Amino acid sequence: MRIKTWHQFCLAATWLTFPIQLHAQTPDQEDVIYVTAARIALPAEQATSSISLLDADMLDARGASFAADALRAVPGLAVSRSGAPGALTQIRARGSEANHVLVLIDGVEASNPFTGEADFSHYVFDDLASIEVARGEQSALWGADAIGGVIRLNSLRPRSAITAGARAEGGSFGTTRLSLQAGGTWDDRWLSGSLSDYESDGIDVAGLEGERDGYANSVIALSGGLPLGEAWRLEGSVRRIVSESDYDSDTDFDGRLDNVDLRTDGRTVLARLAALGEHDWRSIRLNHEVAVQLTDDTSRSLSGGTQTSRAIGQRLQAHYQLTGHWETGPYRHRLTGLVEHDQDRLKSFSGPGVGSNQSRELTANALAFDYGVSRGALDVTASARRDTHTLFEDSTTWRVGAGWAFDTLDGRLRANLGEAVKNPGVYELFGFFPSFFVGNPNLTPERSQGWEVGWDQALLDGDANLSVVWFSSQLENEIFTDFGIFPATALNAGTRSERQGLEVSGGWEIDAAWSLFGSLSLLESEENGLAEIRRPERLASLTLSWSPLDGPISASATLDHTGDQTDTDFGTFQPVVLDAYTLVGGQLRWHVRPGLEIHARGENLLDEEYQDVFGYHTPGRGLYIGLRLSHS
Fold it and tell me: Of 110, 119, 114, which Cα lies nearest the Cα of 346?
């Protein structure tokens, strides 16, 4: 059934302008599985946290080159990009800081070991299968860094004996994009590999009509799995990201960018090896996971082609996780126990005798558990974690939740309460930049307590869904940089950061060809009564997809709105307001024949002038054309 009148479209657009939760791209959640909800595969109807899933169809409809732009569709997430593609790109969840969000790529923690923050500027993957986002305090399950939530990026796995694909695209700003993927499954074995290359001449981020700040990114990834007897299997993955980013800087310290020949070269390796086992012991089904994970991050800063500094950060993690499933009468139980070890090695060098040179080694250990019990319409969850660290006092975090399904209403009520922590980063503790910044080794960890209440509703006989979530959090000991003293330094705030808001999300499968989904978020984030920077009070997103089963043409359109937000003018150190903006995108696809597609897409089609970070100019309208080849 096609859309018959504009009245039907306007009706959908009207209710989608409320904040909406994208649990999945179809209202039927029976087959939707979350990992971030409990560290194991968990059916969506048993989760009590606010979780959004961007599946392959959603990612394809969004058509974004960078994962950060796909995440604009998720309620509660604000994107801040310091200029053009390749520049520092931060994600803030529910008003938290960018380093309060834990990012996992194929299960490997992706944050930079030095900063404790994942830079989304380099996530331009063509092999993504889905992105899962859990919002709210998640430290009890995932440890420090998960104050605002967890973002998990999952790569594609082959579904047939032989699969292969290729993509080529080019367009505005001298942009080219190439990728290759291949893989296959044989009995219980599978193997997948991909290569991609992205290059752009960029724009003049300083806005002085001078040289352009370009960007180049190449990725190679390999993953696979094979059985180890009847009860065990081995899985592994490795991803290598190499990047080159040109950027401008404030060289005369007047608070404005200058056109300068500066560049950052980066290389990140993410690797994981895991042994997974499953067997029954009496009436209990047991699942084992033994894993070792490596994050190796190297960056170089160059001026005029000459290296000025180099930083190396390595994170080695190992854990053993055991989950038991059993039943007692009408109750279904699950209990997960975790033992984890984390070792970070960090080294920076800026020249002989420079004060910022340092070498550090940090060690942390953790014990955690997660319990869930279900009976009919009721689901109850509880998590707790104990962390020990070589630099900080031991910390305990926790989270409890419950959900109740009202079958007569086709709705479900759920609520959560929890506590999370974030340890200071190495630069905040020990950083040193002459005449500018000195670290503070006396910093204490940040701690957040928060709650949420949500209602998930099925509509239109199951063809649509709507979710409304109210949340509130309080952050203590927030770490900030005090520019009022010389040199500037990092301090713990003596007041609380108060965050509260409303998130609404939903989707409508209009008919076999048309689908509509969107989100809107309202947020208040204040520190001592003042609005915190780069936290828009309003966010909204809308995606319309048209994909007929019997035609060669398909299309999609996106609208992403970011409301007014405050920032800091570093020329005067006074607050400024960045104007609201709306980004409109779209793509048109022609399926020439099976396995061959030609597409055209556009970004910022209204040529909006906007800034995510004060003083950093952003790209205007971009138009791109490309083709895809596939075989399966």
Answer: 114
Distance CA 64, CA 564 (A): 23
In whole angstroms, what is the distance from residue 417 CA to residue 151 CA?
Answer: 20
Provide CB contacts within 8 A for 180, sequence distance 6+.
164, 165, 166, 194, 195, 196
pLDDT in tens, 50-96: 999 999 999 999 999 999 999 999 999 999 999 888 899 999 999 99
Which residue type does 100 have?
H
10 Å CB burial of residue 328 (0-12, 13-18, 19+) is: exposed
Neighbours of 601 (CB within 10 A): 23
| Separation between Cα atoms, residue 221 and residue 198, nearest integer Å | 15
Q: Which among 414, 395, 399 is positioned nearest to 369, based on CA atoms? A: 399
Unique residue bearing structure tokens 């790109």: 89
Q: Tens digits of per-residue pLDDT, 499-533?
A: 999 999 999 999 999 999 999 999 999 998 889 99
Are the beta carbons of 347 and 358 closer than 8 angstroms?
yes
* Helix, strand and coil in the chain, % to nearest 5: 10, 60, 30
Q: Are 185 and 66 in contact (CB under 8 A)?
A: no
Residue 425 DSSP symbol:
P
Q: Buried b / exposed e across 24-55, counting CB within 10 Å, b at 16+?
A: bbbbebeebebbbbbbbebebbbbbbbbbbbb
With contact defined as beta carbons under 8 Å apart, do 312 and 297 qualify?
A: yes
CA distances from 554 to 58, 167, 630 (A): 14, 18, 17
DSSP string, 287-328: EEEEEEEEEEEEEEEEETTEEEEEEEEEEEEEEEEEEEEEEE
